[in-house]
Amino acid sequence: MRLLHTSDWHLGRSFHRVGLLGAQRAFLDHLVHTVREHHVDAVLVAGDVYDRAVPPLAAVELFDEALHRLAALSVPTVMISGNHDSARRLGVGAGLIDRAGIHLRTDPATCATPVVLADDHGDVAFYGLPYLEPALVREQLGAGGSSHAAVLGAAMDRVRADLAARPAGTRSVVLAHAFVTGGTPSDSERDITVGGVASVPPETFAGADYVALGHLHGCQTLDERIRYSGSPLAYSFSEADHRKTMWLVDLGPAGGITAERVDCPVPRPLARIRGHLADLLADPALDAHEDAWVEATLTDPVRPAGPMARLARRFPHVLSLLFDPERAPGDDAPASYAQRLRGRTDRQIAEDFVAHVRGRGPDHAERAVLTAALDAVRTEETAREVAR
Fold this sequence. Notes:
Structural class: alpha/beta
CATH superfamily of the largest domain: Metallo-dependent phosphatases
Distance between the termini: 48 Å
Helix content: 25-40%
Family: Belongs to the SbcD family.
Organism: Streptomyces luteosporeus
Protein name: Nuclease SbcCD subunit D
CATH class of the largest domain: Alpha Beta
Keywords: DNA recombination, DNA replication, Endonuclease, Exonuclease, Hydrolase, Nuclease
Number of helices: 11
Largest sheet: 6 strands, mixed
Shape: globular
Radius of gyration: 25 Å
Subunit structure: Heterodimer of SbcC and SbcD.
Strand order of the largest sheet: 6-5-4-1-15-16
CATH architecture of the largest domain: 4-Layer Sandwich
């Protein structure tokens, strides 16, 4: 059975205020073309269909159009909600849409209710595990802890129990939206550490023939059976070196996996350039980036006048401007805020802040107030730890 694994469409997202709806439409055109050209048997979408819980109308219309086009292909599609999606909104009408071959899995209660498809070698059970927020689903799944690993482990226990009750030789595919240990993040994924430790060990998915992951935006292979497709478009300059692709996966008669990457359309290349402003404006080696979306980091010791306008004359698509000034020889001041704070107490940091804002440090009475406030916070934190 041939599968096309994609994820993290983030419909409605922009790139540094540049709208991407046209690029997202071009990607969906490419997806439909790939399904036809490569005779795909099932499409897998591993979460983050939208970029936010209440997406703009244009993004909803694009998604609706995509569903109609996928249904018209008569190729089943299995799709889960991600941490950016509103599971309830995305899942509206799932029962009706299911009849068209578009299988939306947004309810944790359906984790162990697979979409069963068949090929010449027997059944393949597709289990859709939507993004599972530990605080919200722990009790429902009977998880033994409040971490992402605990709730995903509980969901996979249900999956394995269902699979064990099916005919021998039934192959299995799991879709999940999570941060699996060994994956490499970028700057454009939303942090999911709230609600427990974010990472999930690969062993959580033991027993599945293929695991189609979403959440991380770089295409990567954790092992032959566990893969991230990554996002089809770059959503931060940290993805400048990414090759944006989908996975074309062949699932063999006994569950063996072969996979190849299918490149996605690139609306405009990304470039990160660094140096003195005068050098960036004159360096012929940067000619190749004049049509790219550019992030420029200026290292001039003194911030130059009008840098963005001057850069835009050479790089019309410059979107981000950062400053990292070179330090004079012998200047040993720490380069980062974290380094400046290293070794200082909470009280010292608070007093430094008062001095920075007001121009002079706190007096004796004000120091007493700061000390009392910090002590109260520590006492409350200790009480919470004891109560856990």
